[in-house]
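Q: Please design a sequence for this.
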C-alpha cells in the first residue's frame, strides 16, 4: 500500500511540474510574440508620427491662408459697399452736365482718334487723287512712322487701295507706293457729307482761319468750297472753277503759303489758290483774263469785299 501511495504522489508531483513548465513555456511564448509584435510595429509608429507632423503643417498653412483672405475681405468691404439685392434697394441715378462738344471732337470719337479722322479727310475729300506717305505726313503734320500703322489698318479694312509705280526721272529711278480711296467702300458718300459738315468750309470759318493775313481786301471762294460733295477739279473744267480761293491784297504779304498750309491741315486736303495784288487783279479783270473770268462765271462765294468791287 505504501508503495502505491508513493507512486501516486510522484505522479501528482510530475503532473504539477508539467503544468508549471507548460505555463512557463506559454508565458515565454507570449513574451516572445509581444516582442516580435513590438519590433514589427515600430516602423509603422514612426510613419504615423511623420504623417501627423505633415498634417499639422498643412493645417497650419491652410489656417494662415484663411486668415489672410479674411483680412483682405475685411479691407475690401470697408472700401466697397456690398451689392444690395433687397427689393427695397433702388439704383442711384445721377444727372451730369457735360460740356458742349465740338463737331471735330464728335468726329474724332466716331473715327477712332484724330489721326484717323485726318486720314478720312484726306482720302474721302480727294477720292480720285493718289498720295504717298510723304504727302499724307505733310497734310496731317504727323510723322511717317505713326501714319504708316494707320494706313495699314485702312488697307486691311478696305478703305483705301495701294499701288506701286515706277518713277523714271533723270535723278531718281525709285518705286513709290501710292494710296487712293477705294470707290467700292460702302457708305462713302454719307461719310463724305458727314466730314464736310464738320470741317471749316463756310465763309466765316475760312475768314477766321486766314485772319493772320495782312492787307487782305477781297476773298472769293469757289471750287471745293462751293461743291456739295467737296470735289474740286484741280484744273480747267467746263463745270467748275479752276481754283478754290482767290485772294486780293493791297500788297501780297510773305506769310500767305504758311497760313494756307494751316488751313489745308484743318481741311485735310490741298487747296489751289491765287494771291494777287489789287492793281494786278484790276488789270486782269479789265482784259478778260481767263482765270478771273472762270472764277466769276462758275459758282463762287464773295466772303470779303473791302474793295467794293463786286457790289
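A: Design:
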Amino acid at each position: 500500500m505504501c508503495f502505491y501511495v508513493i507512486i501516486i504522489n510522484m505522479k501528482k508531483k510530475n503532473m504539477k511540474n508539467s503544468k508549471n513548465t507548460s505555463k512557463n513555456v506559454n508565458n515565454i511564448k507570449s513574451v516572445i510574440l509581444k516582442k516580435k509584435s513590438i519590433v514589427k510595429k515600430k516602423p509603422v509608429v514612426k510613419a504615423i508620427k511623420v504623417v501627423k507632423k505633415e498634417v499639422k503643417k498643412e493645417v497650419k498653412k491652410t489656417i494662415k491662408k484663411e486668415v489672410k483672405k479674411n483680412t483682405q475681405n475685411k479691407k475690401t468691404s470697408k472700401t466697397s459697399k456690398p451689392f444690395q439685392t433687397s427689393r427695397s434697394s433702388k439704383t442711384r441715378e445721377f444727372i451730369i452736365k457735360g460740356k458742349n462738344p465740338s463737331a471735330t471732337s464728335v468726329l474724332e470719337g466716331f473715327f477712332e482718334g484724330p489721326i484717323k479722322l485726318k486720314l478720312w479727310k484726306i482720302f474721302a475729300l480727294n477720292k480720285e487723287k493718289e498720295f504717298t506717305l510723304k504727302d499724307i505726313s505733310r497734310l496731317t503734320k504727323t510723322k511717317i512712322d505713326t501714319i504708316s500703322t494707320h494706313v495699314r489698318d485702312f488697307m486691311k479694312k478696305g478703305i483705301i487701295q495701294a499701288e506701286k509705280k515706277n518713277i523714271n526721272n533723270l535723278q531718281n529711278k525709285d518705286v513709290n507706293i501710292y494710296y487712293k480711296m477705294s470707290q467700292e467702300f460702302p457708305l462713302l458718300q454719307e461719310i463724305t457729307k458727314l466730314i464736310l459738315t464738320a470741317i471749316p468750309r463756310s465763309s466765316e470759318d475760312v475768314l477766321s482761319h486766314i485772319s493772320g493775313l495782312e492787307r487782305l481786301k477781297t476773298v472769293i471762294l469757289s471750287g471745293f468750297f462751293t461743291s456739295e460733295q467737296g470735289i474740286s477739279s484741280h484744273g480747267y473744267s467746263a463745270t467748275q472753277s479752276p481754283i478754290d480761293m482767290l485772294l486780293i491784297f493791297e500788297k501780297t504779304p510773305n506769310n500767305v503759303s504758311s497760313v494756307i498750309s494751316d488751313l489745308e491741315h484743318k481741311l485735310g486736303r490741298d487747296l489751289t489758290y491765287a494771291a494777287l495784288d489789287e492793281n494786278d487783279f484790276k488789270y486782269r479783270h479789265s482784259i478778260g483774263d481767263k482765270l478771273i473770268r472762270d472764277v466769276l462765271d462758275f459758282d463762287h462765294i464773295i466772303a470779303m469785299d473791302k474793295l467794293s468791287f463786286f457790289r
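Q: Thanks. Anything notable?
A: The CA atoms of residues 218 and 305 lie 4 Å apart. The first strand starts at residue 160 and ends at 166.
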